[in-house]
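Ticket opened by: R.M.
Priority: normal
Category: complex prediction / small molecule

The reporter submitted a protein together with uridine-5'-diphosphate and asked that the result be attached to this ticket for the collaborator who will pick it up next week. Submitted input follows.
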Amino acid sequence: MKKILITGGAGFLGSHLSERLLNEGNEVICLDNFFTGGKQNVLHLLDNPFFELIRHDVTMPFFIEVDEIYNLACPASPIHYQFNPIKTVKTSVMGAVNMLGLAKRIGARILQASTSEVYGDPTVHPQEESYWGNVNPIGIRSCYDEGKRCAETLFVNYHHQNNVKIKIIRIFNTYGPRMHPHDGRVVSNFIMQALRGQDITIYGDGKQTRSFQYVDDLVEGMIRMMASHEDFIGPVNIGNPGEFTMLELAEKVIKLTGAKSKIIHMPLPADDPTQRKPDISLAKKELNNWEPKIPLEEGLGYTIAYFDKLIKDGSIDKF
Ligand code: NAD
Ligand code: UDP
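Result attached by the on-call engineer:
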């Protein structure tokens, strides 16, 4: 049994990771300031004596003895991370400093949840880890993109300078149950709109692409990365290489929900990446043949069922 700290553990991804690590017989301590996550995501874990939930902001130091740290604390959806951009930078940068300092002191392995956003609006397609990216440092997405890039810098420097055992994964768009229904990300928006019979809002012409990964595939990749050989620090892409336009996604959601919604177009936000698709050769090679298993339609089915239940039992009003 390992003692594992998860920052941002009450968020969408953190709650799934907590569940999986507990099921494997570990002790999980989850830190969260409940900005975008909440107790509702981990309510089903609170009775487990090996699960602990602590309200804490990662911009402040935190002391504990653990074997592993997964650093996930950071709002992930554009409307949330743009709500208070200075705080977003502080969460990524000061959060990384605080957690790396902790890992250094106690000798824990630490994994950083980085992002495909470090590639910005990529001019190389698909994106390999060796690509340095194309990020506007003063644009509306920069608080997130540059914060995450700086966190990667901190991770590799704590590794080289202080021998901290680090792991960096670059997560591509991930979806599934427990995404926040109002977080404005495309999968939750389209499903909520379809289930409520509202218009489906496509930003721009809808020809921009994303590659959508189901949450269970990501959690498997995260755990394999944490367990990988000490010399393999990453960064490594963890994503599903299936690439879809937003128009294709909207059509799939309409088909799967049987909605009568019509598609409408709205202005494209600034700096919105035009294409995104991971090259996952490195993950396959280093993470024991890891690759995503859940195709988009299957994963959308599980996610639609989750939102449908929230709407039908009224718990949607709690968000
Ligand atoms: P989320 O918003 O559901 O979860 C983030 C969690 O961090 C929330 O519970 C939030 O309350 C908490 N948090 C935010 N600021 C904090 C702070 N200062 N101190 C303590 N807790 C704080 O988002 P998610 O999709 O679960 O993303 C988790 C991590 O994975 C993030 O670091 C995100 O950047 C990264 N990521 C996610 C995706 C994706 O598609 N979901 C893609 C790339 C990277
Ligand atoms: N998008 C959209 N309609 C929506 C929400 C998002 O067309 O209601 C588009 C958005 O402009 C982007 C893509 O969907 O091109 C993915 O957006 P999301 O915020 O989910 O993720 P990110 O842009 O961070 O990859």
